[in-house]
Amino acid sequence: MDLSWLVWTAGLIAVLFALYLIRDVMRRDSGTPAMQDIAGRILEGAVAFLRRQYRTIAILAVVAAVAVGAVVGLLGGERGLEAYGITGIGIAWRTALAFLAGALCSGISGVIGMYISVKSNLRCAAAAAKGGLSEAVTVAIRGGAVSGFLIVALSLLGVAGIYYMYGGNPEVTPHLIIGFGFGASFVALFAQLGGGIYTKAADMGADLVGKVEAGIPEDDPRNAAVIADLVGDNVGDCAGRGADLFESTAAENIGAMILGITLYLATGNAAWVLFPLVVRAFGILASIVGIMFVRGKDNESPMNALNRGYFTAVGLSIIGIFIANQTIGGDLWLFGAGVIGILTSVAMVFITQYYTEFRYKPVQEIANASRTGAATNIVSGTAVGLETAMPTAITIGAALLLSYWMGGQTGIAGGAVFGTAAATMGMLMTCPFILAMDTFGPITDNANGVIEMAGVGGKVRKITDRLDAVGNTTKALTKGYALASAGLAAFLLFEAYLERVAFLRGETEMMAVDLSRIEVFVGGLLAVALVYFFSAVAIKAVGRTASKIIEEVRRQFKADPGILAGTSRPDYARAVDITAAAGLREMIFPGLLPVLSPIVLGVFLKLTGYDSAMAIAGFLMVGTIGGIMMAAYLNNSGGAWDNAKKYIETGEMLEKDGSPVLKHTVTHAATVVGDTVGDPFKDTAGPSIHVLIKLLSTITLVLAPLFI
Amino acid sequence: MDLSWLVWTAGLIAVLFALYLIRDVMRRDSGTPAMQDIAGRILEGAVAFLRRQYRTIAILAVVAAVAVGAVVGLLGGERGLEAYGITGIGIAWRTALAFLAGALCSGISGVIGMYISVKSNLRCAAAAAKGGLSEAVTVAIRGGAVSGFLIVALSLLGVAGIYYMYGGNPEVTPHLIIGFGFGASFVALFAQLGGGIYTKAADMGADLVGKVEAGIPEDDPRNAAVIADLVGDNVGDCAGRGADLFESTAAENIGAMILGITLYLATGNAAWVLFPLVVRAFGILASIVGIMFVRGKDNESPMNALNRGYFTAVGLSIIGIFIANQTIGGDLWLFGAGVIGILTSVAMVFITQYYTEFRYKPVQEIANASRTGAATNIVSGTAVGLETAMPTAITIGAALLLSYWMGGQTGIAGGAVFGTAAATMGMLMTCPFILAMDTFGPITDNANGVIEMAGVGGKVRKITDRLDAVGNTTKALTKGYALASAGLAAFLLFEAYLERVAFLRGETEMMAVDLSRIEVFVGGLLAVALVYFFSAVAIKAVGRTASKIIEEVRRQFKADPGILAGTSRPDYARAVDITAAAGLREMIFPGLLPVLSPIVLGVFLKLTGYDSAMAIAGFLMVGTIGGIMMAAYLNNSGGAWDNAKKYIETGEMLEKDGSPVLKHTVTHAATVVGDTVGDPFKDTAGPSIHVLIKLLSTITLVLAPLFI
């Protein structure tokens, strides 16, 4: 049975649901004028930043679209595709247009995520101010869900739309729409980098100059960088992650569709090409029910409410993929592979919780090591971060081996690889819910900031502090999820690349990627070096941008002593502006690095007579492995350091005599150092590597003609 | 012309030269009784540690030898080797015996390195006390050279001896002696781990409880951990690195010999199998001349004297490899490949200098970042360390591609791969000199400690401080060298593995290692995870051991207030003992990890029907890439942090007003944090990864029958 109508329906339902949520959030109380004033400044700063950022990105994207179109048009036309009557020019404009469409959708996703989250944080703060923890939770998750559903709908409708626009021929069309994925990754990389650099530079700058130098508390209105810090949460966490997950779902979808071609050719059932879209349509429906299940209770941890909703979505997803598989006439083994993917996401959530929450041993060890100072805190946190690479690898490795084996049991040609695609699609089913949880983080973080800046203290602050701690956890969890999805998807994207190379060469057999060939080995080595170098550049960019902010805040303190006295207001807008300008400058180099590296290496190897297509495959695969491990290290050490500090600040960590460890002790100061170090790890470099991994996949997929 | 006599002659000359150096060092002034007393305690502690350590390692090695013999005997006998009339039992005892011989030689290398270095540091201190910088330099480099030459001689004579003992048949014998390399790596891993954990735990413990808690200077005799700290330099840096470089030269030699078989079969010239040994014989002669050229001058940086000697050795090595190549009748292209290897070592020395010396920008950036505290120091140092991955990868990658290409120009079958072997051998030629420079570090470090503890201050301390700073640099350089040699050798060791698999299977074609197969990809993923996890375990072990020492020093301070007052002596021996016991306990788990991981994974994949031999090849290759990059990060960030601190302590870093940055400022405190964090990075985890990489090569090479 053809279920493609479901794709459109689910996409539409997701949009309608998001509109319902927007109405629901917007009609709620928006707090006191003081709070509205602050939220207004945040919105203003965020819009100003995004406007500048997307102007830069738009220029880059148009240049890239033309270049990509030219390359595939000139090089890709004569081979595989001309059998279907598609000329070089035809490929060129279609790929360039798809690239621009992907780039545009990715950009829209970022803007939506940011805009709704700024609107929601004010309402979340207002709800908390009225004393309602449960309502604050509802506002935060619903505000987060708006961007979650819109982004997923956009990716689903975008891929399906361009597929049908380009003819909907299951044999060729997937090759023509890959530009969509590349465009999405391209924008996502810059969005994540620019936002990530901005947010952590503002955070570090505000902390170093405020908490450390001037001795004023976090989010204190006397600190000129404080609005920039709050803006940062929105442009980094919301806009950046929005663009990131948009491109994940888009790229993985297209990769899965390319693998579906093999199944279609083997079985004659064209539904396989659309199977990935149908699975995700069911995922949207499951996530909607899950979101409606999240209702905070005043006497319960908000995390429990989120977990209930999440497991509802997981359970319904399993049912959904069963139905999708049965209607299409799939083997039960493929359903099994899909379930593996869903369970992988659950496993990653648990692993991330274990390593980054202070209820468990790893974070407690870091906190204990902090008793002997900052050095032991850093050493201990580094060790915890490095350790997480192993459970991450085992989870992803086991999921791949299992889903591959299950896919192989179907006996269909290409079934084994399609098993890993089914697992990836299964994992992505709960993506809207995960995105909602992710955006929950910056919304509650900002609500906390609004409350602090508006001078509403006491009990209210307790509520938003509690929400903020939950937000930290959900942010860490979603990074674990994003990472596992990148790992799981990696394999299917490799296979898509190899299929495409074979298709372009007019061969029926996929080539082997022989690591024992020198160019493949060197390609792999350079790819891992790229991951390290990219991380270094991203981290350095944060430091350099932060120093610009520190200078500005110092200058303001010096120019007007009334600021520190609390009698005059600092110039927030100028601090926002300086951060934005510096952050955007710093985004260009690390952004171009992963785009240009494979091109330069591939062309060099081709010109020197090596097997460039194979070397680039090695570059892609080994680089992905290196990237997953590095991101696990950066994300988890950062999350663990953050919560080691929270362990003290919530009063749960005890001295030997049973009294709580106080703030401003040596131990607490050590955890503050760890938290500051972790900031660029977990919010700039780590998430940017997720995008880097997927960008490598999409760029090699699109530019395959260049390496042949 | 057969040059195998040169191998024996050069080995013998190296031994005689080492004996000459020993006599030269020992007949020098051994200082005041107070100094002798301290050196005596260091020797006692070091001997006690090594005795316990090697007892544990011996038990493990015997068990491993039996297991390895059994595995290859039972599984390897029927295939490739039986054509040569060698039965399963014959393979079993030969491999087990070779393993034990390698293990024994590796152990002896460690002991020699440690023993001579303790003897030399006293003489170096005495020379400095008499005001002679130049003589102190001569003593330190000659003391270091003793172990350098003995270790290289042992590896050369060991490999050659066992080769002839097992029949000297160029076609089969290399397969029988691979156990020698595995035995050497096995012991080296435990020696490096045990020593590395000991040395940094003692260092961190002594600093944290002394400098930070009690406020007494470094190497102050009131600190009970101070002798343990000095012992640590000897057992970690000398014994550990000695075992490490012994196994490098042995393993890479054997790998190169296996590749030589192909050339022998193609050309009928059996000299190719011995070519690697002959090249190294020339390297010994070149290094002897280089060492004799090192003469310190009182009015010149000791680094210049070392550099003169090094470049002399480099120049003579180029001539040596030319002669070796011409006499054997090799193509000039192979000489070119050898020169590439020699130049690679020079390039790595420059790269390491650039990133870890405070004359250059990276370390200065870290120092500047320290002005805003420990957090920015750590972030900046992390970025520098991560960045070094790129130049390292480019250097190794370029050397591999070039030497491979040059080898290919010879037109001989297997010539291309043999080109990388020639490069590796070229690089290893200066190994004795590099080892001497490496041991120079702990000798001067200890001389400094002896001077401080014996209460000889003032001008003398200035001399030893200067020597110590040079020692830090030489230690960093040798790590860069060791890493590049591991990287360069990696490729030849892979090929040796693939050749051996083909040989055992009775096939003439080597298999492809196809990364697009799921088991190969998952194998690679798990291998990189192993590198991360191993680093985490090693770093954690340092922290745990350090906390034991801190407790003990605190206990002693508390039990006898006379210690801090300076009226009674602390119980040094007890602190040494506790560190030793804790360090050795912590060495077992990380040591067994890389030994058991490939076995478990390989057997699991074999039992589940995957191509285990290919997956293990992926494990080996991707793991090597991941290891090289991780080690570059850990070594160089550690070295850079160390010298950012030295930048302040030498008075060369300036405040904005032009005055030097003082000790005990915020900036200096931040660099102390960075230095402490870097300690386990650069002296425990980093160097242990070098050994891990090579252990993975030797274990897979030996146990290949298990995966087929």
From TrEMBL, chains A, B:
<feature type="transmembrane region" description="Helical">
    <location>
        <begin position="139"/>
        <end position="166"/>
    </location>
</feature>
<keyword id="KW-1278">Translocase</keyword>
<feature type="transmembrane region" description="Helical">
    <location>
        <begin position="518"/>
        <end position="539"/>
    </location>
</feature>
<dbReference type="GO" id="GO:0009678">
    <property type="term" value="F:diphosphate hydrolysis-driven proton transmembrane transporter activity"/>
</dbReference>
<comment type="function">
    <text>Proton pump that utilizes the energy of pyrophosphate hydrolysis as the driving force for proton movement across the membrane. Generates a proton motive force.</text>
</comment>
<feature type="transmembrane region" description="Helical">
    <location>
        <begin position="480"/>
        <end position="498"/>
    </location>
</feature>
<comment type="similarity">
    <text>Belongs to the H(+)-translocating pyrophosphatase (TC 3.A.10) family. K(+)-insensitive subfamily.</text>
</comment>
<feature type="transmembrane region" description="Helical">
    <location>
        <begin position="587"/>
        <end position="605"/>
    </location>
</feature>
<comment type="subunit">
    <text>Homodimer.</text>
</comment>
<feature type="transmembrane region" description="Helical">
    <location>
        <begin position="612"/>
        <end position="634"/>
    </location>
</feature>
<feature type="transmembrane region" description="Helical">
    <location>
        <begin position="57"/>
        <end position="76"/>
    </location>
</feature>
<protein>
    <recommendedName>
        <fullName>K(+)-insensitive pyrophosphate-energized proton pump</fullName>
        <ecNumber>7.1.3.1</ecNumber>
    </recommendedName>
</protein>
<feature type="transmembrane region" description="Helical">
    <location>
        <begin position="689"/>
        <end position="707"/>
    </location>
</feature>
<dbReference type="Pfam" id="PF03030">
    <property type="entry name" value="H_PPase"/>
</dbReference>
<dbReference type="GO" id="GO:0005886">
    <property type="term" value="C:plasma membrane"/>
</dbReference>
<keyword id="KW-0460">Magnesium</keyword>
<dbReference type="GO" id="GO:0012505">
    <property type="term" value="C:endomembrane system"/>
</dbReference>
<keyword id="KW-0406">Ion transport</keyword>
<keyword id="KW-1133">Transmembrane helix</keyword>
<feature type="transmembrane region" description="Helical">
    <location>
        <begin position="412"/>
        <end position="435"/>
    </location>
</feature>
<keyword id="KW-0472">Membrane</keyword>
<dbReference type="GO" id="GO:0000287">
    <property type="term" value="F:magnesium ion binding"/>
</dbReference>
<feature type="transmembrane region" description="Helical">
    <location>
        <begin position="273"/>
        <end position="294"/>
    </location>
</feature>
<feature type="transmembrane region" description="Helical">
    <location>
        <begin position="306"/>
        <end position="326"/>
    </location>
</feature>
<dbReference type="InterPro" id="IPR004131">
    <property type="entry name" value="PPase-energised_H-pump"/>
</dbReference>
<keyword id="KW-0375">Hydrogen ion transport</keyword>
<keyword id="KW-0812">Transmembrane</keyword>
<keyword id="KW-1003">Cell membrane</keyword>
<keyword id="KW-0813">Transport</keyword>
<feature type="transmembrane region" description="Helical">
    <location>
        <begin position="6"/>
        <end position="22"/>
    </location>
</feature>
<feature type="transmembrane region" description="Helical">
    <location>
        <begin position="96"/>
        <end position="118"/>
    </location>
</feature>
<feature type="site" description="Determinant of potassium independence">
    <location>
        <position position="475"/>
    </location>
</feature>
<feature type="transmembrane region" description="Helical">
    <location>
        <begin position="172"/>
        <end position="191"/>
    </location>
</feature>
<dbReference type="GO" id="GO:0004427">
    <property type="term" value="F:inorganic diphosphate phosphatase activity"/>
</dbReference>
<keyword id="KW-0378">Hydrolase</keyword>
<feature type="transmembrane region" description="Helical">
    <location>
        <begin position="332"/>
        <end position="351"/>
    </location>
</feature>
